[in-house]
From TrEMBL:
Modified residues (4-aspartylphosphate): 61
Gene Ontology molecular function terms on file: DNA binding
Domain (HTH luxR-type) ranges: 152-217
Source domain of life: Bacteria
Residues annotated as domain Response regulatory: 10-126
Keywords per UniProt: DNA-binding, Phosphoprotein, Transcription, Transcription regulation
Entry protein name: DNA-binding NarL/FixJ family response regulator
GO biological process: phosphorelay signal transduction system; regulation of DNA-templated transcription
Amino acid sequence: MSVPDGPVTRILLADDHALVRRGVRLILDGEPGLTVVAEAGDGAEAVALAREHRPDLAILDIAMPRMTGLRAARELSRQWPDMRILILTMYDNEQYFFEALKSGASGYVLKSVADRDLVEACHAAMRGEPFLYPGAVTALIRDYLDRAREGGAVPPRAITEREEEILKLVAEGHTSQEIADMLVISAKTVERHRANLLQKLGMKDRLELTRYAIRVGLIEP
């Protein structure tokens, strides 16, 4: 769908792989009505560039260093509620699809079909409509049916935002002291969060945490 006339949607694109950004930018800049005004290599840079450029739409990869796409989405939604957000990911993962919606994103686009879906998702987001790829629709329906059958509400978040942050850094191979320095907390606090993660997720060591982080799309293999 093309929108040759009318206002141009200004886009912030965030992905830690320059080649991915280049490919996605080619798709977006080739579409009338869409233009990339800034590129970020991680979530923290995305938030800083959003402050500088005030884009209409942010497209964020989930698995980025320093700050995940989900956390960046939460921060962007908090600071600029009118900014539209799309999550771009390699992973068709239900858990992070629902987390993306809770983080303020209006769409979840798989990188494998970005050439087919991304432009449509951008236009849908700017119309204030959610963009759901077919697998996400299936997940939503299944989730609704499961909750309706059990008569329950949406299950609580499995891990906290801070635990998610520490899980990502542990999985990337950082020591407790390095994580403490990055997050400006004590190493003892990091160890406590790490122990809580192992207990909550029913895991026994860093290797299992790393596999889990890869499986849910928090880091890339």
